[in-house]
Structure formats: C-alpha cells, structure tokens
Known about the structure:
Elements: H1 2-25, H2 27-30, H3 33-37, E1 50-52, E2 58-60, E3 69-74, H4 81-99, E4 102-107, H5 119-126, E5 134-135, H6 148-154, E6 170-173, E7 179-183, H7 193-199
Parallel strand pairs: 3-4, 4-5
Antiparallel strand pairs: 1-2, 3-6, 6-7
Amino acid sequence: xxxxxxxLLLICFLSTVLSENCExxxxxxxxxxxxxxxxxxxxxxxxxFHALDIYGNDVNLNRYRGHVxxxxxVASNCGLTDTNYKQLVQLYEKYGNxxxxxxxxxxxxxxxxxxxxxxxxxLNFVQKYNVTFDMFNxxxxxxxxxxxLWKWLTELxxxxxxxxxxxxxxxxxxxxxxxxxxxxxNNEPLEMEPILKEYL
Length: 200
C-alpha cells in the first residue's frame, strides 16, 4: 500500500510544481490548445471569445459589450469584394460614431484562395476603401481548424447557423452579444440597414 502511495504523491507534487512553473515562467507556452480555443459548449455569446487582430494583438471580444456588431469574413480578390467593402465602410461611417456600430472583419483564404496575402498586404489593400473598422488576423471559418468564434457561429441553431458558404457572410450581433441575423454573401451590406436600425 505504501509503495503505491509514494509514486502517487510524487506525481501530484510534480504536477503542482510544473503548474506553478507555468504560471511563473511563461503562461503563453504553457496554455493548452483547448484553453486557447475556449469551450464552445460553455459559450453563450460572442463575448466569450478572444481573437488576434490583424496586428497580432489578442483581443477579448468582451470589449465590444454594449455595441451592435457586424461580424464578416472578408477576402481581397473576390467578385463581391468591392461592393461589400464600400458598403461596410458606408455603414460604419454612418453609424460607427453616432450609434456605436462596430464591424469585425476576419480575412479568410478558404474560398477559392481569394485572400492569399499577408496581414500587411491585406492592410495595404483595404486602405483604398478607407477602412477604419476592426480587421482581424486571417482565420479559417469552416472545418476542424476554424477559429472558435466561427465554429460557434456555424453551430448556432435555426437560420443563423450552418456552414459558411463563401466570402462575406455577415452576422448582426445585438448589444448583449447575441446573434440576431445572418446574411448570405450575395446580400449587400446596405440590405442589412433596416435590421441594424432595430438594434442600434
């Protein structure tokens, strides 16, 4: 009995020491992939997620609490690019300062390889549209490697969930972090304005 207890105590002791070393030395290296990706089951709103912005900074989406959001997957070389960027900028200029609208744009290269560039190349590209809304790091929006936020969005019930079909799928999120509407890629951003007004 004593022989069994000693190894168990040693394992517990080493686990505690290693855990403390993780906290003391380098939290980033010690954080498990599961912790980084958050638990989809426990998420109740977009505020439960983090994402890297296009500059590589970790952003807690809780910072958007109290704002109406448009979350959209974007691409630079898509036939829908010009219309979507122009109209998203129009909406942001109209409602960003006056009503607190925030737009979270996530580049993705999953559809026809239409977002192949680096973060800097994407930033250079969107300058021609005078984009001032928030751009995020390039992500997958479908599949096993999808960003946790996008996994959660696709797993929503009803007409809000389901696989992302193409670039410029748009979600409207209310001031409590709940997804209230989803628009297909072929829906132009200005078509969302009546619903946006209901929540701003």
